[in-house]
């Protein structure tokens, strides 16, 4: 009798320890991946509570489901989205990522995706043009963007499909502008309205964006603030030029008017 009770005690204690470990790993997996608790629980169950294997299982499942959903959603419009700008010294990358609804554009997961896309394109710009000798602007489309590898060595296309599986909307890499300039010039950038700061993103996110390349003998805070103001004007006014065109007619000289008193 006593041996039976002891065996039951050992079994109960072991079960409780395993449940505790599962709950701990479940919380860790949920925090790290952002996937729903049900998915994380399933991942741990099929991988014997192994965190690393469970995370890989989740990634594989998300990719598979994401690609399947992406194919079914190909005909759906994506009128919403965000512009993201990542910049560093003489390089900048402005990207556009689209979604179906404004609701998803405000989602932390979608904003993190735009952040990853912008930083990946910036890294590509630096690698592709390590020593710029002049101003350069290269436009790349969504297909080429999708082939670029992010910091985790996954393609941007894979990042997109994983997010499709999570948010349930069609997401599209639209285009990117890769800008670089020689070291003698300076860059400034701005987005409006400022979005995604709370998610811990390092890129600038918003509905509109501007990148400014300028020359100035000064590199102080006052000059940087003026450059930001110019970016604001670019976003607000959408100018096509910043100086008179050679085709503009010369101003008509005005003769002074002299008034005499009788």
Automatic annotation (TrEMBL):
Q: Name one GO biological process term.
A: mitochondrial translational elongation
* Family annotation (SUPFAM superfamilies): Elongation factor Ts (EF-Ts), dimerisation domain, UBA-like
Keywords on record: Elongation factor, Protein biosynthesis
State the coiled-coil residue ranges: none
GO MF terms listed in the record are:
translation elongation factor activity
Q: Which Pfam families match?
A: EF-Ts_N, EF_TS
Instruction: Provide the residue span(s) of the region labelled Disordered.
Output: 239-262
Enumerate the InterPro entries for this protein.
EF-Ts_dimer_sf, Transl_elong_EFTs/EF1B, Transl_elong_EFTs/EF1B_dimer, Transl_elong_Ts_CS, UBA-like_sf
What's any one GO cellular component for it?
A: mitochondrion
Is Mitochondrion tagged as a keyword?
Answer: no
Task: Tell me where in this chain the Translation elongation factor EFTs/EF1B dimerisation domain is found.
Answer: 92-243
**PANTHER family the record matches:** ELONGATION FACTOR TS, ELONGATION FACTOR TS, MITOCHONDRIAL
In the record, the note on similarity to other proteins reads: Belongs to the EF-Ts family.
Q: Tell me what this protein is called.
A: Translation elongation factor EFTs/EF1B dimerisation domain-containing protein
Origin species, per record, is: Cuerna arida
